[in-house]
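ok trying again, last paste got cut off:
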Amino acid sequence: MPRETLIQVRRGLASDWILQNPTLAEGEFGFETDTGKLKIGNGISDWILLSYLGSDNSIRVKNNNIYALNKGQAVYLSGYDTDDNLPSVGLYRANNELSEQKFIGLMSSYTSAGDIGSVIIFGTFNDIDTTGDISNIAIGNESWSNGDILYVSPHDYGKLTKTKPRYNIIIVGMVLNANINGTLLVRSFINPKFDQLNGVDISNPTNNNLLKYDNSLSSWTNSDQIDCGSI
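nice, full thing came through this time. structure:
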């Protein structure tokens, strides 16, 4: 079918939208070419204050670090910015320095120090290097393929790995298209540690401790005592 009328949406990089921070007219579309996300203006709110269309898959954040955050890097909740009323984030690695429960997701786009960006927590993530070659999200010693499960790296801040860590296991998602301009399915899942399970109360465990049920606490606890009585 021949095209009679060409309709184009106002568009630009996510970083440019934030830098210029325009006020879209009521019903006017604004498209981020590098994230694939869309906003619709109301004639009143600046770009930063508008929500993304179908935005349940991402949250707005502030980069209060002295370094930039790159697209696709793993980040954690580092605090709260009272000036912009937004959570602040920093680069994360799963090496037990910080609780894995503070992990949020992946940066949706490049965000300079002091700027506002967004973090994708669920959904399809396009135009990102998913080859495993050295990049902002990979250290370059792996080759990623379609269907590979990716984890937060325990060694390098902000990076991902297809090698399952021994501890602090955070599943980030799956490679849908292994390509320099590939696609990830982001669906983060944190494997809980044993002492984080319901009904478990472990404190200062040492080698050869046993797990025993304490009826007074209604929980399983660690102990160095062996009961030799009858069961």
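cool. The first strand starts at residue 10 and ends at 12. The radius of gyration is 22 Å.
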